[in-house]
Amino acid sequence: MAGSARTSEPAATGPGRLHRYVIALGANRWHPRHGSPRRTLAAAVQALVRDGLTIEAVSPWLASVPLGPSRRTYANGAMRVASPLAPAALLARLQQVETAFGRRRRGQAWSARVLDLDIVLWSGGCWTDRHLVIPHRHFRDRAFVLTPARAVAADWRDPVTGLTLRHLHARLTAPRALPKRGVLRRLRPGP
């Protein structure tokens, strides 16, 4: 394994040892073979099955507005998978699938893309190396990740906060009350 990894359980794989992962999927460009972003996500799931991943659950697809410069609506989803691959090897496999679907990494964050596959959570807890950080750094702040992830692994605990995906989703999507009028007065500068 390249780089040093920080994990909460051994990353070694052996006969019969399966790692479980929550993987986020996203697409917002038409694919010449598969068509719409939703159909591209479905085709990506099938490609991962052919690559040997065991798909335990797939969320419904949802539409979300893009972050950053892209103007096209995203199709997003999540899946819970089992694999003998350690995190770095799974990342390499996911990037091979993205490349096979036409993804080109040009360095611009949040641009339109035909397919995006991200490891969000791992059954081993935390993992950090030069190319991969698990849990995904931003998943707690993104409803387009938490909503489908909750659908496939509601009781999975974030190893950093200890909260379940169900709880993280509720925190993120709960309506927020406006501050009371008196609070606004106390925050105003002046006499």
TrEMBL record:
List, in alphabetical order, the GO biological process terms annotated in this UniProt record: folic acid biosynthetic process; tetrahydrofolate biosynthetic process
Q: Which UniProt keywords apply?
A: ATP-binding, Folate biosynthesis, Kinase, Nucleotide-binding, Transferase
Q: Name one GO molecular function term.
A: 2-amino-4-hydroxy-6-hydroxymethyldihydropteridine diphosphokinase activity
In which pathway is this protein known to take part?
Cofactor biosynthesis; tetrahydrofolate biosynthesis; 2-amino-4-hydroxy-6-hydroxymethyl-7,8-dihydropteridine diphosphate from 7,8-dihydroneopterin triphosphate: step 4/4
Give start-end ranges for the coiled-coil region(s): none
Enzyme class, broadest EC rank: transferase
Matching entries from InterPro entries are given as: Hppk (IPR000550), Hppk_sf (IPR035907)
Gene3D superfamilies the UniProt entry points to: 7,8-Dihydro-6-hydroxymethylpterin-pyrophosphokinase HPPK (3.30.70.560)
So which domain of life are we looking at?
A: Bacteria
EC number in record: 2.7.6.3
7,8-dihydro-6-hydroxymethylpterin-pyrophosphokinase domain ranges (all copies): 22-153
**Role according to the record:** Catalyzes the transfer of pyrophosphate from adenosine triphosphate (ATP) to 6-hydroxymethyl-7,8-dihydropterin, an enzymatic step in folate biosynthesis pathway.
Q: Which PANTHER family match?
A: 2-AMINO-4-HYDROXY-6-HYDROXYMETHYLDIHYDROPTERIDINE PYROPHOSPHOKINASE
For this chain, the family text in UniProt reads: Belongs to the HPPK family.
Please give the name of this protein: 2-amino-4-hydroxy-6-hydroxymethyldihydropteridine pyrophosphokinase
* Source organism per UniProt: Novosphingobium piscinae
